[in-house]
Design brief:
The chain is mostly helical. It is built from five helices and no strands.
């Protein structure tokens, strides 16, 4: 019986520990919409040769429309870069739409 309690407590402890390491991420559908706006035909394509400040303003305006701060955007982008299968799936969905 003591082994069962130890096992249950261990699972609860590890479950809580794992949740603390998960960064705040933008929901996938919102992230997909942001990427569409940023990289779409009216997005960064038109800013290819623009100064960095102009690009940063465009990015901030896009994120503000979705009420997302740039820190969470960067965390989400890093998460998907570290999980390329998921990122590729999102990119293919964007290209298909």
């Amino acid at each position: 019986m003591a082994k069962n309690w130890f096992l249950i407590i261990s699972f609860l402890f590890l479950g809580c520990f794992e949740k603390e390491n998960v960064p705040d991420l933008i929901p996938q559908e919102t992230f997909k919409s942001i990427l569409k706006d940023i990289y779409g035909t009216h997005g960064f394509q038109n800013l290819k040769h623009a100064p960095y400040d102009t690009i940063q303003i465009f990015l901030n305006e896009t994120l503000n429309r979705y009420k997302v701060n740039d820190t969470i955007y960067k965390q989400t982008l890093l998460f998907y870069i570290e999980n390329p299968e998921n990122f590729i799936k999102i990119i293919k969905e964007i290209e298909a739409s």
